[in-house]
Design goal:
alpha+beta; OB fold (Dihydrolipoamide Acetyltransferase, E2P); Chloramphenicol Acetyltransferase; 2 domains; four-stranded antiparallel beta sheet; 6 helices; about 25% strand; elongated
Amino acid sequence: MATPVFMEALSPTMEEGRLVRWLKREGEAVTAGETLAEVETDKAVMDLVARADGVLQRVTMKEGDTVPVGKEIAVIGVPGETPAAPVAKSTPAPAPAPPPAPAPPVVSPTPSPEPPAPSRVRASPLAKRMAREAGVDLKLVTGSGPGGRVVRQDLAHAPAAPAPAPLVAAPVPTAPVPRPPSHVPISSTGYEDVPLTQIRKTIAKRLATSLGPVPHYFLTTVVDMERAAEAREALNKTLEQGERVSVNDLVLKATALALVRHRACNAWFADDHIRYWNEVHLGLAVAVEDGLITPVIRNADAKSLSAIGREARELAALARARRLQPAQYTGSTFSVSNLGMFDIEHFTAVINPPEAGILAVGAMVPQAVPVDGAVVVRRRMRLTMSCDHRVIDGATGAAFLKTLKDMLENPLAMLL
């Protein structure tokens, strides 16, 4: 019996997906749980897996197509079965149909020969990806999963396959520095129409539901970062090679601790209530190739500076590779956007609903300022908080910013 393959909702806010590429072709055998295609959602590139064993009989959508959630994109059938006509659906289904129950055995005097077993290796999608990235030949790995399936744990001591040329790993950025979008292609017609990507469509929708309906107001303060910079330099001398604390890490840690003291800013707005969070989950705005995504550092107030730095770098790398999972970019209670690495000294950020606030961080720049009757050069930084006036009053936001400023100007205050 044929099993239709539907475009699944691979993220909580996904309404449609773009088929990046098919990993299986018509006529190839597939196993339940095996990756059929890569799909670009509104946040990342995700794996679409098979929900039944069989053969990929028919592919109805080609690479590059944008497909609504619930629409049929392929059919998995029994080997030797004639492909059925496409399934007509009056309304899109949010989830794929469950695997069909096995058909009852057919009694026959002459047993039918079983189809030859495919020569491919049975492996989980994660194991396949890890093997591909590490250069491991799955044929040399003994699987410990069901039916001899290769799983992640089996790759721990697996031998690497010989490669024709050494692979050079792309360096992981030492800080979550956003990357500006690539240049728009130039044509001879005087302009170039570029279709919206899924992430750009989502950004457009989110901005329309934020900057218009949400009553923004902005608070700016200037922080003397001299002590924080000195503390960071001292800390980095004590850390192991490859680890470091960035200015952004200091801002994230101080923001998390300030939110603990000012729960009125660590909140969500809903139509009929305000939710005040007891946990601090910080959203970290990261620029990707064609937009912006905000991975989440969960329970940031309870994590050390070095742990925040490691997690921020890992999440930023996954975001740029479009490999974030939904749990890694949903549920933030407050967000931080830093453009200081682009020499931007001051800007305002747009609130990410349902959050009630977001912090915009500018560049740390040396400035001549009066200190004890003398003019000295100090490193200073502007912070601008965007507030939802339905949740955060002016005095409330100002009190939060004062606590944040005190912590950054007096790093030891983070230990109290």
